[in-house]
Each structure stands twice: as C-alpha cells, then as structure tokens.
Amino acid sequence: MAEIDPCDLLAIYCFFIIFVTRTVHDIITPFIITAPMLNLILFGPPGAGKGTQSQMLMERYNLNYISTGEALRKEIREGTSLGLKARQIIEAGGLVDDEIIVQIIGNALRAEERSDGFLFDGFPRTYVQAYILDGLFTRLHTSLTRIFIVEVPDTECTKRLLQRAKEQDRSDDNATVIRRRLQEYHEKTLPLLTFYESQGLLTRINGLGTTEEVFARINQHVIEDINRKPVNIILFGYPGAGRATQADKLATDFNLTCISTGELLHEEAKLNNQMSKQIKPYLQKGLHVPDEIVIRLIEKKLTETEGNSRGYVFKGYPRTLVQAYILDGLLRKKGHSISCVINLQVPFLELIKRLDARSQTDARMPYDGSAATIVARLEEHEQRTEPVLGFYRIHNQVIDIDGNGTDDAVYARLKEPVLRTIRNLR
After folding, report:
1. How much is the pTM?
2. Are residues 371 and 280 in the same domain?
3. C-alpha separations of 75 from 89, 97, 119, 243 in Å
4. How many domains is the chain built from?
5. CA end-to-end span of the chain, whole Å?
6. Nearest to 233 by CA among 92, 343, 125, 96
7. Over the chain (426 residues), what is each successive 10-residue block's mean pLDDT?
8. Do 253 and 359 share a structural domain?
9. What distance in Å separates the CA atoms of residue 88 and residue 101, rounded to the nearest whole number?
10. How far apart, in whole angstroms, are the C-alpha atoms of residue 273 and residue 279?
11. Is residue 78 assigned to a domain?
C-alpha cells in the first residue's frame, strides 16, 4: 500500500473541517436570530396613537408585531397545550401568569424570526416581564434596540378617546372608564420606565401633532440606531473595473476604513525588510501573494484602525475561498460580519482598454506593461475570484452593479442598494 504524504493528509483534514463547519453553519443559521436586529417597544397611554405609529414602523422596517393579547388568542384558537391552560385560567376569572406568558411570547418570537426585527405591544407590562424579555432576546442572540414612550397629556388622551367613542359608537368608552384606564397605565408603566431608563434604552417622544410629525420624531431615533450598526463591504471587480475609486467613495459616505491588500503590500514592499523581500517578486509579476503574508498585514491594519470608523470596505480581498473564510474569522473576532458584496461588472474588452490606457500614466502597475500581461492578469483574476463570488451568492450577499460610465454614474447605481442593505442589517 502506497504511503500517504503528510501534506495530503493535512489538506484532506482541512477540507473536512471546512466542509463540516460550513454544513453545520448552513443548517443552524436559518433558525438563529443574529444581532443586531431592530427590536422596539412602543409604550403610550390609551389614545396616544400607538396603533398607527406601530403600523408605520412595521411597514417601513419589516418588523413583526408581537402582541401579548394576539399571541395568547392564537394559542387558545389553535388549541395548544399552552392555549388550553390559559383558557382554563381565564374562564375561572384569573390572570394568565408569567410562566405561561413567557412561553407564549417565546413561541411568537421563534415563529416570526425571518423578519428584520420585532415591535412589541402589551409586553412587557411588569418589571418581571422586562427581565423575561431580556432572557428571551439572549436566547435568540439579539437584544432590545430601543423603547419609545409616546407622551400625550391625559386631557388630550381623554379628548381623543371620547371623540373615537362618538365616531365608532362605543358606549363603553366613557369618561369614567377612560380615567381608570389612564390611571392603570401610569401605575404599571412607571416601574418599567425606571428599568429601561437605567439601561439607556428609553426615549421619550412628544405625541402631540399630526401622525406624520410624531412618526418623524420616532423615525429620527430609529435611523440613528441603524447608523450605529457595523458595516463591512467587499468590493469585487476585475482589474480596471474602478474598485479603488468606488471604495474610496463608500468609505467617505459611510464612515468606513478602506483596506486594500494591494496598497498594504506595496507599502510593506517599500520598507526593505524581510517581508518586503518575499513580497516584491509577486508584485513584479502581478501574481497572488501567499496568504501567510497577506493575513498578517490585514491583522495589523485592523488593529491600527480599530474604533476609527463603523466598519471596513475591502478591495482586492478576498481573492480565494480560503481568504473568504479567513476574512470571516478576522471580522468575527471583532464582532463584525460581511454586510454585502459589490460586484462591478465591466466587459472584458473595456477592461483591456482601461488597463492599456493606465499603462501610459504614472498610475501604471507592474503588470500593465503589455497586452499579454494584462490578459494573463485578467484570466488569473477570473480563475481565482469567480468561485469566491459564487460563495457569497449562495448567501445572497452579492449586489451586481453595471461598472460602465463615469465614476459618479457608477457610484449612483451602487449607493442605493448599499443603503437598503444597511437599513435591513440584523
């Protein structure tokens, strides 16, 4: 029996680990909510207009509406074991306890986990339930984004509710009932305000004015929360597609740090150290620099720039499937992940024209010297990069952009889909 080379064994082992890891990841991921999502609680006294504001928030941000009452009625309607227990308690004139409520809300959250977040109404209602919600979010690997209190004076709430009762012929909404409902709201809400205020999650909203004016006040804070989410973009494209220009524009607009492996390698090559001696032969021929070298340079750059921006835009990396996994690991150490992948699409002949024109300028690269080296470079890029794009396409992260036209025209095409992606980040 022929002896197996240890290197072959190592390669087989690495492939097996990557395959198993990716398979398990692909199976488990659809069932886990990954932070950050947009999770909101909207409080306000009866008559504050919570229903209208909730509907506008759900439509704008693709949020699932979680109502204790609705979730409870659903369990009862479907005849689940929880629903039957709750029904017995209600029919006996009792209140459904937190032990049942937490399970019902947990079921509602898991049933709706494919959205971009949750909007809660009627939960939590007590200090204990606030802790319960914290625990539910922890189990689902997400957290509460913000709690809004829509503040409207009792006199105005009473006026609105009496008007609504008159318009809808609701005799049960009289002044005595309304006064009792408002009193109950204030008594139950005060402890919750203390709980969330101490966590810095509470935002008070002036509920007077038109529906649009109130929503604008709420939405301003939601946008601020979205803009705090980490953003990491990969910019793909053949040499000559304009990656450098578009990466710089993205970095400026979205407060990102631009990381170009080409620039890192050329800067290192100027230092005349041991690593520069290893790098220069590859740069002169326009060939792929070994991952052992590139990963150290990226790690160094990430460390140097940590905290300077909300994330990164990568150009020239990753170029292989191995590098795609490496980048995942590098970002995961910082609690980040890839937000989207921009693929600049430019016809092959146009790329050759651009690179040939660049070879006549001071911006020429070592491999711009002849048509043969340009074509070789493009072919190498295709062989290495297309599988990587396929990898990101499987995960629905690729945004294809027409790279023809002026720099501004191309950027106008890619900016809007990037904005949409950022708004929908979990």
Report:
1. 0.58
2. yes
3. 14, 15, 19, 53
4. 2
5. 53
6. 343
7. 48 42 37 59 91 91 85 89 89 82 84 75 83 84 88 94 86 83 85 85 95 95 82 88 91 91 88 86 81 89 86 89 90 86 88 76 60 70 82 91 93 89 66
8. yes
9. 14
10. 10
11. no
